[in-house]
Design brief:
homodimer, alpha+beta, Glycosyltransferase, Beta-galactosidase, Chain A, domain 5, 2 domains, five-stranded antiparallel beta sheet, 20 helices, 33% helix, elongated
């Protein structure tokens, strides 16, 4: 109570009430006294919370039985000492929550004893012996993990705060928490004083312990950063990201300001947003309790809670996050950070009942006031489905640095993800105007994701592998256009960070014809790129398809490569190709050095057709090609001395020399194969032909014919995309008039 | 009734009863009059049968709505005319059953009209225009599919037999069924008169229609084959299998006699057993009704019903059949043939309640007497779990041609499949003493299966691809020893068919140490091969592992390659290797021409350790190696001009020149990875060292040490495998005495 009062009112008020019920009435950071009492009163009648409590009790009891071990730090991410200290901080926080709710002293004793074991070792602890990090921690090889530790340990300390004696608190704060917070901040400004998910963890760590310790200096440091950090604006971190740019602010608010767009999109992408959401939200929850005057959850029009909704929408039909920028595939809404996010968003974000169905999928809640709210509402049958939807999210602090569009048809029958964003900080990839495509949760056209085996010690200590830079970040690793075998912005983070793509238009108002179009003029100086992606469900076809128009204009001659990163096995092509032997690499740099050229084909007609089978489904890519185009079948795995890369395939349409290029394609999912009945349903493409009928600055138009003979026309306005703009175009003697940025019609 | 009486008694009895209730009392082949009445009486109270009936009704109604189409034959397996005629015969049989049970005349009309449409076209129908088959059909490109048609059409005819007029029956039999049966038999002896799954279909087709038509000549032809077929014993079929060997019998009984071992193992393997089970069993069921005097289901000690049990046991934890010999992965107990098999085995095989749980997984039953029995017992709660188990199945008509052993630990935690069988007819692979390994349903060490996209027209018409011969059948495509880069029996079917491996011993009596051992002396003339596989669950390790001892002895020097066909990504090795660039093929023939050499390593110690991750689980192979061994990392895909092969990896231990070789390895599953918590559990091998301590003609012994320091010893008796045999062996000064073919002990 003392500490809360410190923020809420003044000394007088404190004096008037402090002695009343000191030990019992003091509110915790995330578990208020009233919240604890509500939970205790309804235990046994809150299925989600009861299940969580039982699970947590079993985990913590097992840790208590294992005994306390705080080994001398030694290992990288996958090794024992790393994993042990990581297990410790989770156990600390959970044991504290059990003590608070169950009032069993053994859980407080466990927290106290472990904290004192850390206290005893911390003063003499040198920097972690592994020297790879740009900001080394003490318990872990990087400050980031030390910050993880403190965010959880601060909560544990808070949960047993009243149970400890004043002397014990003094000893822990003086010898452990204060120097720990200092190491993460004043001693590591390159870690603490920037805008980055690392710094968010740093701010939350320092801020959380500051709140428990009632240390205004630490709190201010967390909220606003270090005033004088002495950082060099040319310094970079391990991922090649700049530590600091001129005039940039730091601290919690700066990290809320900059990476989140007003729509709630986090510029690093969902994998890191997920990672950052925990410190953002747990610190915000604590501030909301302790410093409601700051209005943290309302900050920037409630961006933190909006961001939870965006994150949940940036996942496939199995709840796995799209691998935008550096992202490990498989990470999903089942992660503990999302449990926190969903519970807090429910409690403080207007009790959106759709979140309850996500909580039910997660099967657990936070052991705090927010988890209580979710468990009670879920028990009361309030859950509604969380239907994922088409969306267009702006990027950049002010929402003016490009964005990310998601075109979804039906119940995720087809989801196209189109990236026209900013660079995405140091975890960003060089993939302007790239496309990723999903049929339910199956990847049809993949983004490789990151090249890293997170926490698997055998593979580079569980850290980023060299191939993350040499392959995963490069343009050719994505479904986007690559010119002259060079990556966008020459693969330079410095250049990429200065630019972003620009939306031409986004229109998902008609579920049957959803279109997004964006341009990129800086990826290749002197070349203008414009890509239009349409997800179309035509009544004549059983499945929705994608129409892809990628236009490049330059004053000079270039080689253009448009890769399609499919999965599975080639079924058929309408062109001849020659399998290569031996297999040589496709190029020398910019990711090309990792691709083997498996076969080279040449167009036999105005369209190149490429069919494949993946996950027992059929797909055909029909593309308008020129006679001089080369059709390349490539396979990942060259220059991979440690077998760090998957052997995934790619199909690349290469136009060897052109000033202007228009790549028009239809990506067509069709049919399925049943391995039990051995029946192949709808295994052939329904597109008889595709042709470009208008290619002007103002308009691009393509016509296609189905195998049934039906003829279709799609026109896109490249320059006047306003919803109300009227257009007219004459094609093959017929006049077309329409309003809005595109027209899809029978012909 | 007339027709049954024909078999049961004599003319007198017939005369006495035939006129009593002709139309109503006539028993059908698979749906007896009493059975129909039982079903009708309990409709709505038989969940499995009710669900099936509803499903079938929907299917047939959709076909009736689609209309009858009997197109002029034109296509291979994946094409329209093939698929249409195939859909037709299923619809015929189902519509007939619906008519019988529901008594709705539209179903009889549909059958009649379609049969007459076939009748109208059949007389003038030439051989199918596709000429690839060694035995061309008329409706389909191969007689096999015509036989499929007749097996179903005969049932449909039987089900509406009484409803048709005598004139209609006469017309159908004269113009359609009799010539159809003749084409499959007297006109195609190379198809009909052999021992092969094709001929089983042929016999069932001719026999089923013979039973309906009461044509004793056709029935005898089906049961006993053609007396004079004029076949040349040097003729081969499309798979390279011999049509006929000297003195071989033919017909249904011969096909029961030869391919089934007394244990019920079918020599072609489970994929083709599944395919053959339908004609075997449906014809047997019909014979059991019409000719109980033949005792078909008791034949060869009830081998047909035993075979169902074997087939169900030869599947992984998901019910998918092991890909022994030619087998398409994914085929499972969910196939319609298995519905038939399970229902008939239940009804006539002593009502084994374990089969009911399989039927419940299948979710449907046959619409006949057997399906009624299963549905009623299932409804009555009699189902018991079908627990799959370790087993040793003999191969060969008399059970003396090698066999197939299955060592399983726990609830399919680890299943090792060891093949020491005969050739397996024309679908057999050259993989003597090969191993396949499964962790639950995950393939740890794979058998490639077949190289074919069954019924997917793009890929070679859906038929076997050239790579099935050049890769899938070759020894190097399997986890077995390859000498001098040549396949077993020089890849010759003629040679392979003359030999089989020999069991040394099989002992699965102790679940914690299950061992099988077999030798092969003919695969490479002059070289004796002996492989011993042990599945061991040691209390010191969390997961069971495989100990693999492969011994080769020759008087001359050879190169030995032992491949391990793993899945997933390399994590770590304890040896250095050099990645190759460009990628060249590993050899020129015998499957080697399809492998790229990705890297070459050399041992750095007495053990080579190779770790990989697959399906988020960890595996380590620890092998005793010699300094001159080469450790090859290979990748499938060379010489694959149509991309017919998967790009699967292999790890090969090569001993370049030796007369005697012992490959001793531990294949160790350990731990798992969680992509949501990003935690790697137990990611490292627990085997500190492995060594060969005894290498004599009589005994092979290996010792190994765990990372905990515990030391283990395994001794196998190579020559005196009797259960009661007493053994003594001195190793490193210690005396070991034991009884039985092996010893596993602490050291």
């Amino acid at each position: 109570m003392m500490r809360i009062a410190h923020w809420l009112a003044g000394i007088l008020l404190v004096l008037a009430t402090a002695t009343a019920s000191a030990a019992e009435s003091r509110d915790g950071l995330i578990l208020t006294q009233a919240g604890v009492e509500r939970i205790r009163a309804e235990l046994g009648n809150l299925p989600l919370l009861d299940a969580t409590l039982e699970q947590v009790r079993q985990e913590v009891d097992a840790e208590i039985a294992f005994g306390i071990d705080t080994p001398i730090p030694r290992d990288f991410s996958g090794g024992y000492t790393h994993q042990r200290h990581k297990a410790n901080f989770f156990a600390l926080q959970k044991s504290g929550a059990l003590f608070k709710i169950l009032e069993q002293e053994k859980y407080a004793i466990y927290v106290r004893d472990m904290l004192f074991q850390y206290e005893a070792m911390y003063a003499d602890l040198p920097l972690h012996p592994q020297t790879r990090s740009y900001a080394r921690g003490k318990l872990f090889w990087q400050c980031l993990n030390d910050a993880n530790w403190l965010v959880y340990a601060a909560q544990a300390y808070d949960l047993i705060y009243d149970w400890l004696s004043a002397e014990e608190r003094e000893q822990l704060e003086t010898n452990l928490f204060r120097p720990f917070a200092d190491h993460l901040s004043v001693d590591s400004p390159q870690f603490f004083n920037r805008v980055h998910n690392h710094s968010t963890w740093g701010a939350a760590a320092v801020g959380m312990i500051g709140l428990v310790m009632q240390d205004q200096e630490l709190i201010d440091r967390a909220l606003y950063g270090l005033e004088d950090d002495g950082l060099d604006t040319s310094a970079v971190d391990n991922d090649g990201g700049f530590i600091k740019t001129e005039g940039q602010e730091a601290g919690f608010f700066a990290n809320l300001n900059e990476p989140f767009s007003p729509d709630g999109y986090y510029t690093e992408g969902p994998y890191y947003q997920r990672y950052a959401m925990y410190p953002f939200l747990i610190f915000a929850q604590a501030l909301n309790n302790a410093r409601p005057d700051l209005g943290v959850l309302d900050y920037k029009d409630g961006v933190l809670l909006k961001a939870v909704d965006v994150l949940l929408n940036l996942a496939d039909a199995d709840g796995e996050f799209y691998a935008i920028n550096d992202g490990q595939k498989g990470m999903s809404i089942q992660s503990y950070e999302l449990v926190t996010a969903v519970d807090i968003a429910y409690r403080y974000g207007g009790e959106d009942s759709r979140l309850l169905s996500i909580a039910q999928q997660q099967g657990r809640v936070q052991l705090d006031d927010t988890g209580y709210a979710v468990a009670a509402a879920s028990r009361d049958g309030l859950a509604l489905p969380f239907e994922k939807r088409s969306a267009n999210y702006s990027d950049g602090a002010d929402g003016d640095e490009g964005g990310l569009a998601l075109l979804r048809y039906g119940d995720e029958e087809l989801s196209a993800l189109f990236k026209y964003s900013a660079q995405g900080l140091s975890h960003g990839h060089y993939d302007k105007l790239s496309l990723a495509l999903f049929e339910h949760s199956d990847e049809v056209l993949q983004d490789y994701g990151l090249a890293r085996f997170v926490n698997i010690e055998h593979k580079g200590g569980g850290n980023y592998l060299p191939e993350n830079t040499s392959w995963a970040k490069q343009s050719i690793a994505h479904n986007t256009l690559v010119i002259d075998q060079a990556s966008h912005f020459a693969g330079s983070y410095e250049i990429g960070s200065q630019h972003h793509s620009q939306l031409n238009f986004y229109d998902a108002s008609n579920p049957a014809v959803q279109v997004v179009s964006a341009r990129e003029n800086n990826a290749y100086p002197g070349t203008e790129l414009l890509r239009t992606i349409a997800v179309i469900k035509d009544a004549a076809l059983a499945k929705p398809f994608v129409l892809d128009l990628f236009k490049a204009s330059s004053a000079t001659t270039h080689q253009f490569d448009l890769p399609f990163h499919y999965f599975g096995q080639v079924l058929d092509t309408n062109f001849d190709y020659e399998a290569q032997q031996p297999l040589a690499r496709l190029g020398d740099a910019n990711g090309y050095q990792h691709l083997y050229l498996e076969a080279v084909g040449a167009p036999s007609a105005a369209n190149a057709k490429f069919s494949w089978m993946s996950n027992n489904k059929f797909y055909t890519l029909t593309s308008v090609v020129e006679a001089t185009d080369a059709l390349l079948l490539a396979r990942l795995g060259a220059n991979d001395p440690q077998f760090n890369l998957r052997r995934d395939p790619a199909y690349i349409i290469r136009r060897p020399a052109a000033e202007q290029a228009l790549f028009a394609s239809i990506i067509e999912p069709h049919g399925s194969y049943d391995r039990v009945t051995e029946s192949a349903l709808d295994s052939k493409s329904h597109i008889a032909s595709l042709s470009v009928v208008t290619q002007e600055d103002a308009y691009t138009a393509v016509a296609f014919e189905l195998t049934t003979g039906e003829r279709k026309l799609f026109i896109v306005a490249n320059q006047q995309p306003a919803k109300a703009a009227a257009h007219a175009l004459r094609i093959d003697g017929a006049d077309y008039r329409w309003t809005g940025p595109f027209l899809y019609t029978d012909r």
